[in-house]
Amino acid sequence: MGQKGLFVKKPLKVATSEEPQELHPHLGWFHLIAIGIGAIIGGGIFVITGQAAADYAGPSIVVSFIIASLICVFAGLCILELSSVIPMTGGSYTHSYVVMGEFAAWIVGWVSTIQYLVSASTVAVGWSGYFKSVLKDFGIVLSDVYSHAPIVLDPTTGWGWSGAVINLPAIGIVLLTICFIGIGIKAATHFNHTMVFLKLGAIFLFIFLGLPYIQESNLIPFIPPNTGTFGQFGWSGLVRGAGFVFFAFVGFDTVSNLSTDAKNPQKDLPRGILGSLIICTLIYLITAFVLTGVVSYPELHAPDPIAVALNTLHVKVYWLSLAIKLAILAGLASVVLVQLLGQTRIFYSIGKDGLLPYSFCRVHKGRKTPLFSTFVTGIVAVLISGLFPVDILGELVSISTLFLFVLICLGVLILRYTHPEYERPFKVPFMPYIPILGILACSIQMGFLRLSAWVQLILWLILGIVIYFGYGYRNSKLRAGKSG
Ligand code: ALA
């Protein structure tokens, strides 16, 4: 029999027994950590860190990273508990369906779309910046008209046109990765391992080369004085910087969406999520320290800050600098891949529940991949990455992810009190303090972001609510009694 109301919940038993066998479970903890690193390290460290240091935090961006990583630990523990109770494809979307009901689940799924699809597009735009830089090293100058976002958001004049037509390199990398995903997850993870290896190699080489060239004068004052405007240096800048570099951690929970692709989800998901989070945090702290130590922070406002830093090193290591840039290109490509992969799985799960048309969950028999979801993901990412610049997209991704984390921490609290009897292979320690701290930290961090980010998030939510009442509410399988 069908159920009514916006808060209709998926019973846990039904949810788990419904779990599809169509996808091919073959990922171990090592693969999951690699996928985590593939999703985490990317545009955040290679592009956004430089801009956040130059505009908001200066050398104290290192502390911003610590704040951002603590928020991720709070949220990560909550995600782990939910994943251990509800080990299903769809990650936070499915968890919310079981814990808070359909409407909350839709909101989470819809906002996750920003987290995955928009962040993939953001990184694709960052990829385009480094691609141009590499071409320039070979004497090829790509016209901005075809390699830059046509839409801009100026802090003083508002929305406008840059004069460019489209960002073709960004579109190119989206198309390439979406083809890999379409071919099948096995091919996708092999591609990912190679990329992760190159990306880590580039970072370690940069740290190794940069360490001897750190100048104390670049790091002092560690917290540059506030300019008189809230969020521009000083303590408020340091915290705003944390909101910006939060982008660099987006994706650490991607692994939780892959429970049906994992061989032993209950053990390997915690290892995958926490392992990749710890490794990436350490790498970020050292990289940010070297970056701001080698270059005076105002100079880091560039689409390719690592390349800027490499150019200031006194050693003439042209080929090494080129190798690092090439590896960064590979690394950024791996983030695009993992984020788009996560998005296809979210569409798949939402389609399965009838909140999006059935085509979204149809799996190609030979390839074992949801082809239509992959196709739609590709088209939307092509449009976003071809038209928008990094700063607009990155800020939207950060605020949306923080919003999601508030809901996730809330979900853990609700489930502990509504269903204390559920078996919890992983339990958040220090209940209820960790989720409460998570909610507070994310909310405060959101408060430090710019008004434009809030406006974009609210508009996205309104669009999502319209789509839900226009389609999902009427076609929900749970409500119609076809599941649940
Ligand atoms: N965390 C990912 C990146 O930095 C989104 O590119």
Your description of this structure?
The chain is mainly α and 484 residues long. It has a single domain (24-479), classed as Up-down Bundle (Amino acid/polyamine transporter I). It contains 18 helices and 2 strands. It has helices at 12-17, 29-40, 43-57, 61-85, 91-99, 102-137, 168-183, 185-210, 216-219, 234-245, 265-294, 305-312, 318-352, 371-387, 390-418, 433-447, 451-475, 477-480, and strands at 151-154, 158-161. The protein has a two-stranded antiparallel sheet. Helix 3 crosses helix 6 (102-137) and helix 8 runs antiparallel to helix 13. The protein is globular and about 65 Å long. The mean pLDDT is 86. Bound molecules: alanine. Alanine (ALA) binds at residues 40, 42-44, 119, 123, 247-251, 335.
Throw out a few tags for this protein.
484 residues; 2% strand; globular; Amino acid/polyamine transporter I; two-stranded antiparallel ribbon; binds alanine; 67% helix; 18 helices; mainly alpha
- The count of domains is 1
Rg, rounded, reads 22 Å
**Topology, number of strands:** 2
By CATH, the superfamily comes out as Amino acid/polyamine transporter I
Write the layout of secondary structure elements.
Elements: H1 12-17, H2 29-40, H3 43-57, H4 61-85, H5 91-99, H6 102-137, E1 151-154, E2 158-161, H7 168-183, H8 185-210, H9 216-219, H10 234-245, H11 265-294, H12 305-312, H13 318-352, H14 371-387, H15 390-418, H16 433-447, H17 451-475, H18 477-480
Antiparallel strand pairs: 1-2
Helix pairs in contact: 2-8, 2-11, 2-13, 3-6, 3-10, 3-11, 4-10, 4-11, 4-15, 4-16, 5-6, 5-15, 6-7, 6-13, 6-14, 6-15, 6-17, 7-8, 7-13, 7-14, 8-11, 8-13, 13-14, 15-16, 15-17
Bound molecules: alanine.
Residues 40, 42-44, 119, 123, 247-251, 335 line the site of alanine.
